[in-house]
Design a protein that fits this description.
Elements lengths: L1 E4 L1 H8 L8 H6 L3 H13 L2 E2 H8 L3 H13 L3 E3 L10
Helix pairs in contact: 3-5, 4-5
Pfam families: HTH_20
Protein name: Helix-turn-helix transcriptional regulator
Keywords: DNA-binding, Transcription, Transcription regulation
Length: 88
């Protein structure tokens, strides 16, 4: 899974507009590690669970779990053009 921050939130942030979050998205963001993952994606662009785990010092399984939770809240999207397999 290659993930990037959701385009609607990204474009709203870059244009200076406020981003509205529903309660589901706020619940997803309640975990501090997910905030770190989201910040990393916004600063460095699309990434994989493996790269995120290396950057944040967590295991790849935990990074993958938190990416799935961020995706379920609509805060990130998968980048289909970048592939979905493991990096070799």
């Amino acid at each position: 899974m290659v993930a990037s921050s959701a385009s609607s939130a990204s474009s709203a942030e870059s244009s200076g507009r406020d981003v509205e979050l529903d309660t589901a998205a706020l619940r997803v963001l309640a975990h501090p590690l997910r905030l770190n993952v989201l910040t990393l994606l916004r600063e460095q662009g699309p990434s994989t669970a493996t790269r995120i785990s290396d950057e944040l010092g967590i295991n790849p399984g935990a990074a993958s779990y938190h990416l799935r939770r961020l995706a379920s809240g609509g805060l990130i999207v998968e980048e289909p053009d970048r592939g979905t397999g493991r990096e070799r």
